[in-house]
Amino acid sequence: MNSETVDAPRAVIVISSHVVRGSVGNRAAVFALETLGYPVWAVPTVILPWHPGHGRATRIVPEPEQFSALMKDLERAPWLGEVTGVLSGYLGNAEQAKAVASLVEAVRAKNPRATYICDPVMGDLGGLYVPEALAIALRDVLLPIADIATPNRYELEWLTGTKLEDIKSVMAAAQQVGPEMMLVTSAPAMMAGSTGNLLLTPSAALLAEHRIIERPPNGLGDLTAAVFLARLLGGQPVEKALQSTTAAVFEILARTAKRGGDELQLETDAQSLSHPMAMVQLRHLMHPGKGRRA
């Protein structure tokens, strides 16, 4: 291994929520990336004792000025050239979006090949669970500068104002609002009793399906974005990256559910991140922009 390989940027900045107990937000993304060999700079956007879905949860959000100052420190860091990727997830308020965008710009100035993946965490089946101003900031400030976005189907519905009930409508919506590479989770599947991850790139439309597990723990979107980023940074082709990411997340989900866990048990199933054994159905779909099979 030559010195150029040793010195190649490998760090990832992860900007998301921090919970004391559980495996959501930064707790999920940082663990996954570090397990897969990537040093992480972890920026908390909000601090919570646990996911609010478990009950009353005190919410500590940095003051906008403090958050912005911390992010400016990172922009000036002498180690910024170590960074090869940025992943943003749940934000504490709308003001944080501009600070994230500024940091992404600084990272790209140091390393033009750095990848920014935006997980626009804003809602689920029941609609938005963040203030509309925050959802608008994600849409208008961060999605336009992302290399990759990973919304779930319901977030994509809000972004387009369209009900997305089939694969064709999901692909059309992804083309409408996203960067060139869109990974849409909770996408409609072709197999009964299944759900899918739909990946749309300029040249490929791919659907990875697995069976639905009822009442899943939170954190699946955070984990999916982090593992997919790690796969791409590791040089995997998008098809293999999608399939192995979906297999890893499904395997951890299935094992957690079998044990009756109320949080993803990443530490117990860390091996699944690197070497998932779950079978995932991968389909090549007709690309909406090409009129042919990808």
Describe, in short, the structure shown.
The chain has about 290 residues and is α/β, with parallel strands linked by helices. Helices cover about 40% and strands about 20% of the residues.
Structure keywords:
10 helices; disordered N terminus; globular; alpha/beta
Can you put this structure into words, describing what you see?
The protein is α/β, with parallel strands linked by helices and 294 residues long. The chain has a 9-stranded mixed beta sheet, with helices on both faces. The chain has a two-stranded antiparallel ribbon with strand order 5-6. Strand 5 (123-124) and strand 6 form a beta hairpin. The chain has helices at 3-6, 26-35, 64-75, 96-110, 132-142, 153-160, 167-177, 220-233, 238-259, 270-274, and strands spanning 11-19, 40-48, 83-88, 115-118, 123-124, 127-128, 148-149, 181-188, 194-200, 205-211, 281-284, 286-287, 292-293. Residues 1-6 have low confidence and may be disordered. It has 10 helices and 13 strands. Helix 2 runs parallel beside helix 8, helix 3 packs parallel to helix 4 (96-110) and helix 6 crosses helix 7 (167-177). Helix content is 38%, strand content 22%.
